[in-house]
Amino acid sequence: MSKPWIFVSPANRGIGAALTRHLLRTTTLPIIATSRSTSPSETKKALLADLSLPSSSSSSPSSSGPDRLTVLPLDVTSEPSIERASDAAAALFPPDKGQWHMHLGFALPGVLTPERSPRQVEYDAALETLKVNTLGPLMLMKWFADRFLPRKGTELLLPSSPPSSSPAHELLTLPPHATWTTLSARLSSIADNTLGGWYSYRASKAGVNQLTKTLDLHLERQRNAMALAYHPGTVQTDFTREFWTHVPKEQLFGVEYGVERLVDVVVAQAKLETHRGKCWDWKGEEVLP
């Protein structure tokens, strides 16, 4: 029986940090989170700050209290950095012995330079956008999705009704399959591109959707897992701060609400038969290619 764990990268700020805290509150699973810009100890301290954790009946020390959370250094623009983090994860949760599998994986890296005309595109900035937004998730797929998602035939040990020490903890019911989620954007859609602009960002996120579909075809053949992409809308993080005044209030989401919608769409709602390989938005509607 293979036990589940969760992966979130990066998790030192924004959606990744809020998602990690949400999953710590709503599951009893061990979580590996990553950070590039702050030390693992500082990131872990911030993620656990003032957080009430549900209890676990697991006998594994990695599933109890703050020890459930492991923070690893990882830079998505450096494959050796990703490989080292992958090896550290394998040491904690060996995939080759059939005892552990990654049940939920979230690849969330993103940068944005809003070019409104071709003349505003700068090569180095565009290259960095593609490295972080497209090649970063691809390398995470290589070293985490392909290494740790459960193979077909693996018997998954999933808590049907996880224990909780407090009624304040409404715990998440895990799907019967593993899921790999990569953060995309509505701007990835060619069909929906009616305004133009944002050249490198649009291209990088369109690439994310292509990679997601390609990975999902691989998973469909070999794994008890699926891949999908997700558009969170405009969530109030540092990433979107300069655009808040341009977004209608009803379309500007607090980070907690944004994370709740993410988890509801990609974990609670997503089904193998209907959702795999596609990009979905915060409303649970497909974002067309």
From TrEMBL:
PANTHER family: NAD(P)-BINDING ROSSMANN-FOLD SUPERFAMILY PROTEIN, SHORT-CHAIN DEHYDROGENASE/REDUCTASE. Belongs to the short-chain dehydrogenases/reductases (SDR) family. This is Oxidoreductase. It comes from Apiospora rasikravindrae.
